[in-house]
Structure prediction request, 364 residues.
Amino acid sequence: MTPAGGFPRAAIGRADRPTLAVVGATGVVGTVLLGLLSERADVWGEIRLIASPRSAGRKLTVRGEQVEVLALSEEVLDGVDVAMFDVPHEVAAHWAPVAVARGAVVVDNSGAFRADPDVPLVVPEVNAHAARVRPRGIVASPDCTTLSMIVAMGALHAEWGLDELIVSSYQAVSGSGRRGVATLRDQLAAVAGTELGTHPGDIRRAVGDTGPYAAPIALNVVPFAGALAEDGWTTEELRIRGETRRILGLPRLRVTATCVRVPVVTTHSLAVHARFETEVSVEKAHEILANAPGVVVCDDPAAGEFPTPADAVGTDPAWVGRVRRSLDDPQALELFVCGDNLRKGAALNTAQIGELIAGEPAEG
Prediction:
């Protein structure tokens, strides 16, 4: 069926439900999002798939049907109720306001609007109420590193009141998109069967091109993610600080982050030191986390049970383990968190925000 606008609607459209546009449907996160739309409760009518002109005409599967990808333009945004953007920030910065002007509410997964005070930054398990107030017609989803830990931290904060957060991240290469994954695979192939690690520069010489990273990622860790910012911090580290403050509503929260890229394909991990306003206990922390939506507790080190990226990849929750009370501070906990950076870290949170908006009561 082709409407008056001249572009094909999905055959699976349902006129009594809101129309969804997935902008960036052919990207890494967009691909995961389409899978989630097929797995989750079906709240959408038409689902319109949109990408760059070079991807137009491709057919992708959503809700068990083949849907043609449309080239991004003003016209294909007409009639859209909710538009989920999984595109580079410069594309979102231009096109999200266009979608709003055409009548859509935008859920943006880029970094274009996360620091905008007129754009709520939302994690549904923590601050779902914030999605209702959107002066610019846009709701932002946080960065994947923040999302990997914030659901667990939000639950603990609600009980004890968070006072300080010190985190070290161990970030998977899929956080750099397809190029990051390709770089790791190419470098692993280059070093396979080579005796390395006995002299400085062995790995660097073996891999040659370091891709999007400042140093080789194969058989290595790179203590730098994002771009260089003021005073030696990176944009990724400052993003964790700013986003955590916004989501928890704690504008003066002390947050220190060190971001490290590791040779893992998918799933970010974080070692977290969290200090609270009152005394804490491991037993109570386990109880809080076990009852928190979107969290799985995996914490029996004596039996070899603790979260790793290999456990969490492909799953939706944050996995939490190695929960300990600080040796020197009865008000502080140490814990380790893993979260799939393409699911809850990106596509799932976007889908959840969209479902919140779709479920809002009609005006009037």
